[in-house]
Specification:
There is one protein chain. The chain is an alpha+beta fold. It is 53% helix and 14% strand. The strands form three sheets. The chain has a four-stranded antiparallel beta sheet, with helices on one face. The protein has a three-stranded mixed beta sheet with strand order 1-4-5. A hairpin with a 2-residue loop joins strand 8 and strand 9 (275-276). Helix 4 packs antiparallel against helix 7 and helix 9 packs antiparallel against helix 10.
């Protein structure tokens, strides 16, 4: 066992880091203030292949793996967490589901444009009355001839403001529990009856798009049923979220490391009581604790990614990584704001944005409480 990244991953990390430093970081504050993602930046990331990292080259992807994707997520999120989630939802929730469960025809038609960056994907699962409790979803898809007619309302759908491809979860059989009666559908944004509301104003990741989506008699051909079999939707969603949680763990590690790097720069320059505050043991110990927590979260995240890459069970590892990394991101960003004092609280310094951005990592793609359900569920407690 070797805990160092092989050279090819270090090279990739370097590439992602340079892009994030040069292209993403300079826009992060403005995008947050405007509550709007920069479409020019989105296009540049598409052109660089950042939306197809773990997908096979035969579908237009980069032919890389989950660990590389994690490195990208961390580097982008160090600069801007909104960028992280934009890539994450597209990659690990939408495109990965098609990669894992789609028929060959569906991969050609729907995965290819997502993997080669032509189109952006989103994941339409959460409803106003069904968040952690996915089973209480109400959106339906009724078969009429060669079509399904989808009706319902989704909320908090990341990327929905500009996504082209909507992966939508709807009940095809209401007579059985949702875990057996839910199906997943591929829906093009321009399908009549699909309406995206304006973005929901939020505390953090404000540049990311996140809105409600209404489906009113949305007709899709039966061939848009993901995997071609009804009743698989719940498990597709759960599998997608297992993978998605690795990405969010990496996002949280990135937010934490980004904030800590800012704090390290600051404490070396800030002079109080006659010396740089980096010279005070309180500062040194705080920084030491925070870097150690980040490294622990990063190792858990790498473990989950490598297990997925190796075809081993990874859902519990993913939950542990997300539970830990999201907590670390919140503790560290709070600690960094404190180290920067009044300047940390000022909008001019990025740690206040990072502290706001960190909160959502404990909530989306499964709350910390859901992570504990997943972990304790694996512990043979009955
Ligand atoms: N992989 C495969 N199958 C799974 C699974 C997994 N990870 N988890 C559960 N299942 C299966 C179970 O084996 C069971 O199958 P059988 O019926 O065949 O036995 C079935 O699914 C039902 O399982 P449960 O009884 O455990 O289901 P539950 O209703 O109690 O829910 C839960 C379990 C863990 C709480 C689940 O609902 C969950 O993960 N909730 C959180 C949802 C979530 O993360 N939402 C975020 C949405 S995305 C988002 O945030 C927006 C965005 O755009 C970023």
């Amino acid at each position: 066992m070797d805990f160092t990244l092989p050279q090819e991953y270090l090279d990739l990390q370097d590439l992602y880091r340079k892009f994030a430093e040069e292209k993403v970081k300079p826009l992060a504050r403005e995008m947050d203030e405007n509550e709007k993602y920069d479409m020019g930046l989105l296009q540049e990331m598409k052109d660089c292949g950042f939306f197809g990292i773990p997908f096979d080259e035969k579908y237009g992807g980069a032919g890389s793996d989950v660990l590389s994707y994690v490195l990208c997520m961390e580097e982008m999120s160090k600069a801007d967490a909104s960028t992280g989630v934009t890539i994450s939802v597209h990659t690990s929730l939408c495109a990965s589901s098609i990669d894992q469960f789609g028929t060959e025809e569906q991969k050609e038609k729907w995965l290819r444009p997502l993997a080669n960056g032509t189109k952006i994907g989103c994941f339409s699962l959460t409803e106003p009355g069904a968040g952690s409790d996915v089973s209480s979803a109400r959106t339906t898809a009724v078969k009429e001839g060669d079509e399904y007619v989808i009706n319902g309302e989704k909320i908090f759908t990341t990327n929905s403001g500009f996504a082209d491809t909507f992966l939508v979860f709807a009940l095809t059989d209401k007579s059985v529990p949702a875990s057996k009666g839910m199906s997943a559908f591929l829906v093009d944004r321009n399908t009549p009856g699909l309406t995206v509301t304006p973005d929901i104003p939020r505390m953090g990741i404000r540049a990311a798009s996140n809105a409600a989506v209404v489906y009113e008699n949305v007709r899709v051909p039966a061939e848009n049923l993901l995997g071609g079999v009804e009743g698989k939707g719940f498990k597709i969603a759960m599998k997608a979220l297992d993978g998605g949680r690795i990405g969010i763990a990496a996002q949280a590690v990135g937010i934490a490391q980004g904030a800590l790097n800012e704090a390290v720069r600051y404490v070396k320059e800030r002079v109080q009581f006659g010396r740089p505050i980096a010279a005070f043991q309180n500062t040194q110990f705080k920084l030491a604790e925070m870097q150690t927590m980040i490294d622990a979260a990063r190792l858990l995240t790498y473990r989950a990614a490598v297990a997925k890459d190796n075809g081993q069970p990874y859902n519990v590892y993913a939950a542990m990584a997300k539970l830990t990394a999201s907590d670390v991101a919140n503790q560290v960003t709070r600690g960094c704001v404190q180290l920067l004092g009044g300047y940390g609280f000022a909008r001019e310094y990025s740690v206040e944005r990072m502290m706001r951005d960190a909160k959502i990592t404990e909530i989306y793609e499964g709350t910390s409480e859901v992570m504990k359900m997943v972990i304790s569920g694996s512990m043979n407690l009955k």
